Amino acid sequence: MKILFMADFSITASDILENKKVFDSYEDVEVDVIEVNLGETKEERASYILRTEQEGPEWTSVPEEVLEKVKDAEILITDFAAVGKEIMDAAKKLKLIGVLRSGVENVNLEEAKRRGIDVICSPGRVAAPVADYTVALMIAETRNIVRSNLVSSQGEWKIRFRNFPYSHNMAGKTVGIIGFGNIGQMVAARLKPFGMNLVAYEEYMPSEKVQKLGAQPVSLDTLLRISDYVTIHARLCEATRGMIGKEEFAKMKKTAIFVNTARAGLVDEDALIWALQNDEIGGAALDVFAQEPISRDNPLLKMDNVTLTPHLAGTTSNVGSNSFAVIMEDLDRYFKGQPLKNKR
Predict the structure, then answer these.
(1) Distance CA 300, CA 260 (A)
(2) 291 with 323, same domain?
(3) Is 202 one of the catalytic residues?
(4) Which residue among the candidates 125, 248, 263, 280 is catalytic per the annotation?
């Protein structure tokens, strides 16, 4: 049985080779690696990822060496590299596709299903660091940490900023969590010791379970109206694309802080800019953008009521090993003929 890993800039060939020993306990398993170039510069790689997120995997062609390598693979593991019809046509023996992330927009799921190819992912591989980062952004925007660092480094002693009237203690404030999966639940767990009120909107989870996990289940409309912080952690799909727009921002408190460490496509960025420019909300803390790297003429760069970071929430030194640990659980089930846990 051949397993082919597609290594890109995020999960490198050396990362894969370091973890290759986990397959030693399985008989007749051959591990092969091919490096896939998603772009020469970080801008090109970011563009590749964003376009795949928006359009799916079929927009890009596949290098001949990849098509040759995949011919005899039963299992194909990828991170950001696209897996579409072209690869599936070449991979006549393919039975399983694994994605080393929770998102699977880089795989043609419909085509895989039609061919009887299972697709698994790695939910939770960056859940903890993203949850940590989300809370950090909430604090940074509320207490002006980034802004005060900037002015202090320029020799200015400034203690009052635009949001001073609502730069409050977080205890007793309400946090609305949109999407109560792994990351949403971890955000709730981290905020509970702050003494905050936690409400959550999760369309695919029974209210009793949401409550058991530490949040009060509410409708999206209610969440938007009552929350002092709105943080979004929903999965991006056609149903959720642009789910937060002008109408939703208009429902929020004038002092509310909006946080997005999930996917840019969940939010209408023009509507967010409108809300910030017109004081419809108090501020925002953003790690994802409609165009990445963010364009130099983006109005967000000139605003004093936003905290911006360059898609760092899930970036930690041990993300590769976390990914392998999660996906190996399902690969072990596959080898043993057991039901897959993280099947999409």
Answers:
(1) 14
(2) no
(3) no
(4) 263
